[in-house]
Amino acid sequence: MDRIIITIGRQIGSGGRDIAKWLAREFNCKFYDKEILNLAAKESGFKEKFFEQNDEKKEFFLSVAHFRNPFFASNDYNDNAFSPEKLYQFQSNAILKAAQEGNCVFVGRTADYILRDMKGVVNIFITANIDQRIQNVCQRKGVDRKTARKLIKDGEEGRASYYNYYTGKRWGHSESYDLCVNSSVLGIEHTERFIAEFIRTFIESKKK
Asked: How does pLDDT run across 35-74, given as a tens digit for each residue?
């Protein structure tokens, strides 16, 4: 294989982002999480903050009139370019371009679907037990358990809606990925090693 492309879907609080960063180091890959928003901004002419506010959200409640000045990097635009589908296309183009340039790890943003026709792509989904995820969000955000549970519920509803809408697949369901792993079973460190071994085996199998 000429390249290694790893896509990571993740439940909130599952440790998926940390695992993705470790895999990027392990396989000498560039790491893209929110970094892809900067690339999409360059691709589109919109400011990065605009993509941040619509990140992994299907709904598009922003009005063109209200947000023209602060979110456009230049005045060279038209209203037809200002839609959820167009923003998704800008982000998709950025992901495709990054993947074509070398080894990458992508977190979320339907990268598994966008890169579905590219060789050397392995798609992973990270889950974890809900109590562990709540605890992790409490620690990371400095909130109580009730607030953490709500953050998880609202955030995952948004991710699922976005993923399902643009891919026609089901977010978090095993048929959408090459491997689904519960990080609560082995812990983060051993989950990282388990996934790395799976990826090495996956790569070798594609060479045959």
From this structure: 776 676 676 666 556 555 555 555 543 444 344 444 444 4
Go through 135-168 and write b for each residue having 16 or more CB atoms within 10 A of its CB, e for each that does not. Answer: ebbbeeeeeeeeebbebbeeebeebbebbbebee
Closest CA to 73 of 93, 50, 46: 46
For the beta carbon of residue 115, count every other beta carbon within 10 angstroms.
22
Band of the pLDDT at 184, cuts 50, 70, 90?
Answer: very high
User: In DSSP terms, which residues pair with 121 in a beta bridge?
Assistant: 5
Helices 84-101 and 35-44: crossing angle, nearest 10°? 110
DSSP secondary structure string, 13-27?
Answer: TSSHHHHHHHHHHHT
User: Token pair of 98, please?
Assistant: 């990054």
> Distance between CA atoms of 27 and 117, rounded to whole angstroms?
21
- Report pLDDT for 79: 47
| Type of residue found at 142 | G
State pTM to two decimals: 0.83
